[in-house]
Design brief:
One of its GO terms (molecular function) is microtubule binding. Pfam families: FH2. This is FH2 domain-containing protein. Keywords: Coiled coil. By secondary structure, this protein is mainly α. It has one domain: Methane Monooxygenase Hydroxylase, Chain G, domain 1, CATH 1.20.58. The protein is built from six helices and no strands. It is elongated.
Amino acid sequence: SVVSSFLERSFCDVFFRRSDAGRETCVFPLPEPHELFQGSQMKFEDFQKELLRLRKDLRACTAEVEKVCSVSDEEHLQPFKDKMENFLSQAKSELETLDSQLGSTHTLFLELTVFFSVKAKTGEKEVSLQTFFSVWHEFSSDLKDQWKRENRVILKERLKAAEESFRQVKEKASYSVKPKQSSGIKAKLGMKI
């Protein structure tokens, strides 16, 4: 669209005033389009289902450990019991951390959609990752194409300037050697003959 093209052009104009523009060290400043596409394919519900599955597996593992501990002799119990208690404790802690991180990420995402004024599609109760990131994927793809073109143009301009500078230095450095006027006896005798 026209607005998108204007934004891309304005961004490139501002960005390429930087000193590393047109150089190989110049890096695309936004997330790569394929990363945004991958983000658009994810769903918070899938992550929540996966956490639910992990909780269920952890409960099953805990029950299995308790079962093994209850039927084992006290003399064979100890290395297994301590290691499994540590493992289960660590797994529970990591699961709680993941759950907390998922909740805060979801909250931050909703705040981000409000900041960018993205509305949920009809039939959706909230903005999906697909809705949000598909717009940014398209923008990032277009911007990266524009960015590459601008970078090439600046690179060519810098190359021309360097070639012109080299040519000017070469012209200043080149001088013509005039043959020496001989003024010795040989020259005077040679003129008389």
